[in-house]
Predict the structure.
Amino acid sequence: MTKGVIYTGWPLVEGYCWPQSYLPGEAVQLRCSSRAERFSVVVTRIGSERIRV
């Protein structure tokens, strides 16, 4: 990837949480990067069903 080159005009959001697993009641820490001015996040538990937490 060439520094300074924008490959898309879309305001993409990339991110991850670390650690990737939490106990009930713990605060989730997110690391995000984006060219978008604003974005929202929905945290979902992925198991046999997807549950918004």
